[in-house]
Amino acid sequence: MLDAVGTASLGWGVIGYGWVARDYAVPGLLAAGGRLVSVADPDAGARRHAAGLGARAAADLRALLDDPEVQAVYVATPNHLHRAAVEAAAASGKPVLCEKPMAASLAEAEAMAAAVRRAGIPYGTAFDQRHHPAHVAMRDAIAAGAIGTVTAVRIAYACWVDAGWAADNWRADPARAGGGALMDLAPHGIDLVDHLLGEPVVEIAALTQHRVQRYAVDDGALLIGHTASGVLVQMHVAYNCPEGLPRRRLEVLGTTGQLLAERTMGQSAGGCVTRIDGRLGLSAPLPVPEAGASPFARQMAAFARWLRGEEHPRLFCLERDIHTMRLLARAYGEASCR
Ligand SMILES: NC(=O)c1ccc[n+]([C@@H]2O[C@H](COP(=O)([O-])OP(=O)(O)OC[C@H]3O[C@@H](n4cnc5c(N)ncnc54)[C@H](O)[C@@H]3O)[C@@H](O)[C@H]2O)c1
What we know:
Rossmann fold, 6-stranded parallel sheet, oxidoreductase, Gfo/Idh/MocA_oxidrdct_glycsds
């Protein structure tokens, strides 16, 4: 399969053509020079939209997986359906980029990982925030020693998701989502810490709340953890934070300075990053190359390069993604809402 990818524009099949696929991933893959070949979605409106872009569209995934023009598969169904789609794509020998969280449970993610290993296909979980220009600039600044020895990462990542947020709000259903704000938003933070510091979070614990929204999943959580070398990690994620409030903040603290990213976490480019000097307390903007580039376009381009062997082998990494799922399971195992 890797040989077949070549340097021509990558032909994509998309399983699950809802909000994130339609508004971010497909515009991203097209901007990255890819082709939308085929879409599988049971929703007729989704299929009509995809057909309007020139894609073949069917309710079922069989035609997409049998299509020789589909060289890579992007999975963006609700969480509990990731497993079936990834297993089917693996059995057909196609590389897969699957949305986060990898699955609705650790057991499902482990079954997916087994199928991927058995088939020997390239697999990546779609952590688009790795590819946000601001986060790449922060990672490079940290590696270059811009804030000294890193001591802590603090993240606030929140939004408002009420029971009627979507016509069929699967995010509020524990069986389909696998959890609430913690399951949906914390994976981004866990992965981002690994990306920024080059080492994983190894321990984690959480408190969850069911404070505002009228559904069965958590609408907020606080997580604490540390990385392998001892960097402390603190995360507040929430579905109960109104739009007008500051909701997206990422701080990396070190012995000679601090990086503060505001409004960078999310699907779009933008936001700003400041470096605060540890001795004088002065703030200066951190230069961000290609600041306006879409994280999704960069992710799709990076995945295509990775398939061709032109990226760091661990830019996408099944074992790291399974580790993230283990951390989420551990966080929920220890979570309490009292
Ligand atoms: N990376 C990000 O920033 C980001 C943002 C939003 C969502 N996501 C993830 O993307 C996934 C989809 O989220 P969304 O907000 O787009 O959801 P959505 O409900 O808007 O879209 C899901 C789509 O899947 C389709 N679908 C349902 N069953 C299907 C099946 N059996 N086969 C094919 N398609 C099927 C639905 O008809 C719908 O069009 C979730 O895993 C979510 O966590 C990631």
